[in-house]
């Protein structure tokens, strides 16, 4: 997120109205709902996490324990269990259709 000078983008009338409420402070103006981006859409985080999760599942299938996976990926055992369960569900759904 970057900052933009209000004086450079807002008409003076709008700036005067805003100054009645906030003056000399930073103001965050959220995106409209229709313009919001999903998590990971602008970075590769979503894809990297999905790849990591598939790797965790593959290693689990090969016999690596949840405790060992937890230590390898610096995640709580419960998080590892959730990842494995989610991927199992996805595979079952994919095979059912």
From TrEMBL:
It comes from the Bacteria. Residues 9-95 form the Mor transcription activator domain. Coiled coil: none annotated. Signal peptide: none annotated. Pfam families: Mor (PF08765). NCBIfam families: CD3324_fam. PANTHER family: MU-LIKE PROPHAGE FLUMU PROTEIN C (PTHR37812:SF1). This is Mor transcription activator domain-containing protein. It comes from Oceanirhabdus seepicola. The lineage of its organism: Bacteria, Bacillati, Bacillota, Clostridia, Eubacteriales.
């Amino acid at each position: 997120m970057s900052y933009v000078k209000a004086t450079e983008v807002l008409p003076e009338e709008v700036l005067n109205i805003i100054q009645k409420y906030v003056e000399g402070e930073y103001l965050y103006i959220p995106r409209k709902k229709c313009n919001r981006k999903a998590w990971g859409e602008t970075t590769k985080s979503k894809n990297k996490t999905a790849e990591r999760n598939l790797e965790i599942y593959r290693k689990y299938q090969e016999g690596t324990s949840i405790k060992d996976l937890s230590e390898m990926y610096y995640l709580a055992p419960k998080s590892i269990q959730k990842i494995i369960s989610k991927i199992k569900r996805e595979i079952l759904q994919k095979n059912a259709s």
